[in-house]
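check this:
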Amino acid sequence: MLARIILLSLFLPFLAIAFSSPGMAQKKPSASVLKKGKAIFKENCEVCHQADAIGKAGVAPSLTNPEFLSISSDKFLEGTIRDGRKDTGMMPFAHLGRSKVRAIVAYLRSREKLPNRTKQVDAQPDARGDPRFGKTWYMNICSTCHGSDGNGYESEGAGTAIGLPGFLDKVTDGYIRETIKVGRSNTRMLSFQGPAAIADLTDREIDDIIVYLRTQAKK
């Protein structure tokens, strides 16, 4: 029995190394899958999201933005493509089937430039704030681009519809929180926390905005 315990204690470190090694990481998509994803994107998505998915303000967001990809999980991307976003120009593409939707996501993912932080971001705690204060911050700062009702382009704003269930039902509070804090480079979504930000919001004020959005969506 003692010999078995000693042997197991010697073997476990090597087992841990094996499972944490690069070779055990998630397999990267093949070149053929990426080519397929690019072709499907070009046929179905490029008309709105533009070539290379760089997006166009007032029409469709950038899907290859570094900050966006770093906090967008595959589940979120696949779900959005599959279900679309009701009351927006983003129609559902469930008819493509799972393999084609995943090929699109693989193509988008191949454009990543920043470390993938989706697990850490989605594991953040739910926002705890006051929707009354959140409304004030939202109206003063966010509504200019996202619309007073959070319906984005429908209000002729430059920002997406962040106040509708189609968006809020699929994102975590961590996702919204990080987007407000960091912003999106090379887009009109600026950073809203830090000395160089357009508005240096506190963590509590950001949570107030998140709670307000959640409250509005339920209405």
In short: The mean pLDDT is 88. The radius of gyration is 20 Å.
